[in-house]
Amino acid sequence: MKARIIALATIFLCFGLSQQEVGASESMARTVDRNEEIQPEHVSFGSGRTGWKLRIPGNRPLATAAYEDGLIFVGGGYGSYEFYAIEAKTGNVAWMFKTGDDGPTAAVVKKGYVVFNTESCIIYVLRAKTGEKVWEKWLGDPLMSQPALDDEHVYMAYPHGDGSHHLACMKLENGEEIWDVKIAGDLISAPIIYNVSVYITCFDGTVYRYNAKNGALIWSQEKKATCAPTIYNDRIFVSLRHAEKMSEDSVEQYEGLATLNNSDGVQQQKDLWAKRKAPYLVYGRSTAKTGAQAELDASVGFGSAPAAAKLGQAKENVGQYSVAGCWAYQGSRPVVRSDRSYNAMGNEIQCLDINTGKVLWSHKYEIDEEGIGGRVFAPPSYANNKLFFGSGNGEVFCIAEKNGKVLWKDKVDGSMSFQPAVAKGMVFVSCDNGLLYGINTGDADDDGWYMWGGNAEHNK
Q1: Which domains are delineated in the chain?
Q2: Mean pLDDT of 137-149
Q3: CA 307, CA 140: separation in Å to the nearest integer?
Q4: 0.70 cut: is pTM over it?
Q5: E strand or H helix at 430, and its extent?
Q6: How far apart are alpha carbons 295 and 310 in whole angstroms?
Q7: What is the pLDDT of residues 369-402, one digit of tens each?
Q8: Which residues pair with 421 in a beta bridge?
Q9: Which residues lie closer than 8 Å to 248 by C-beta, 6 or more apart?
Q10: How far is residue 237's CA from residue 102's CA, in Å, rounded to a whole number?
Q11: Which strands make up the sheet holding 165-171, listed edge to edge?
Q12: Across the strands, what pairs with 110?
């Protein structure tokens, strides 16, 4: 299927046809009948909270939902051909869009547009209210990261026909290319937009900063970075991998937090902050997990790792060697607020002073189950002075930013690899088995983390 689509796309492009014409998706969304099988269920949790759950057909891993104006937007999961708009309060499906290829990733939404890409080839821009297609463009296979938006542009990484990965900037309204540059490989999670610059971390650990207007490279640093960067007050926060040789036959992997200069990308401190052993960065530590990832890849036509994905980079740097694993990999990306950094490494959630690197509080949890992305915890979401986490054993945590105290936690029926969204007093949780939850938090001020990374720039 993938090979056929790539071949057809190549033929169409050779004959001068628009890339928008390559996909096989409908130009209008199909409204889902309330009497069809996609129906939400009312749920009550052990904490006394209530909400809804929706089983997306196919039981596939789901990415973070995106919220705008009473709707949440979510792809049908790795390997699916559906993208949904769902009423946030009720869980009822408002509309569904049929994609031309499989694997919708996490969406971004802004100014009435919802933007997402499929794992296999295509980026889409739809009207958020109706699902009407504005434009689509075939980029390449596989696409393991997601797009980012500013007010006028879409930013997306993809494997180019020249054998290199590229980062592209396109007009939001029509897909017109503004600039396109070569990069080392696919991205961890997504591009990050801050102050007219685009920041990325490639799976080989290289961190880049580009001028968002013209694509000019400002700097690049080979840092063995293990997550997408967070930019706060003109400082860059990123987790880094560090290998220490223990003996002739033994190397131990560590991970810790670093800050980089915004002007040149140079690391601001010699030693990593809160450095800890990181066995989760070693490929093959869990045969059950790598087996599940291999099955997901096989389900979409990848009998072995495709050369275009350059998965050797991810295997060496973050311990992932499958398209599904890289698609779901989130790393230890921090949230930074009021001179504090919050992140999860392994089964530990921690808070650091960003001026000194001092650990202000840290809590370990007796959890060793991982999501499809290979982590016990997804990166935190932040709202209303609280942190929200999903875990590999199906527990959803809400903790106080001040001291890490658990304010509440509930159990859902599936592991989680992606961070939740938080909007209007609800937490939206995406599971690795196709279950989507809307949980009423009991506090209407729990609001503001509307998609992966918090906003369309992914740097809330």
Answers
A1: 2-440 (2.130.10.10)
A2: 95
A3: 12
A4: yes
A5: strand 426-430
A6: 19
A7: 999 999 999 999 999 999 999 999 999 999 999 9
A8: 428
A9: none
A10: 33
A11: 148-149, 153-159, 165-171, 177-183
A12: 113
